[in-house]
Specification:
three-stranded antiparallel sheet, 8 strands, 46% strand, 0% helix
Length: 98
């Protein structure tokens, strides 16, 4: 099931207009398992943030492209790790372009 997890848009283009309203920029994680944690890292391995997902009906989670301190992330390549409570993991990447 984790193999079906996707991120969109990828690459994320800051001025794309995809799934955005004025002043809001979001990345969408889709086809998530009912319960999981998404950890996001820079390509150099620096931790950015954690998103917790726990919803039996909706397999989507949106991220506002901000780190744990609330700052906008820089453009670049990012790694995300989706992990279930049972220890199953999916590691993949996405890009942010300004």
């Amino acid at each position: 099931m984790l193999s079906e997890v996707t991120v969109s848009p990828n690459p994320y283009m800051r001025h794309s207009g995809y799934n955005e309203s004025s002043g809001e920029h979001k990345l969408k994680f889709s086809k998530l398992p009912t319960e999981c944690e998404i950890n996001i890292y820079t390509i150099s391995g620096e931790f950015v943030t954690t998103i917790k997902h726990d919803d039996p009906f909706d397999g989507n989670e949106f991220w506002d492209l901000r780190n744990g301190r609330g700052d906008q992330i820089a453009p670049g390549l990012y790694i995300y790790v989706v992990e279930t409570p049972g220890g199953d993991k999916k590691v993949d990447k996405f890009a942010v372009v300004r």
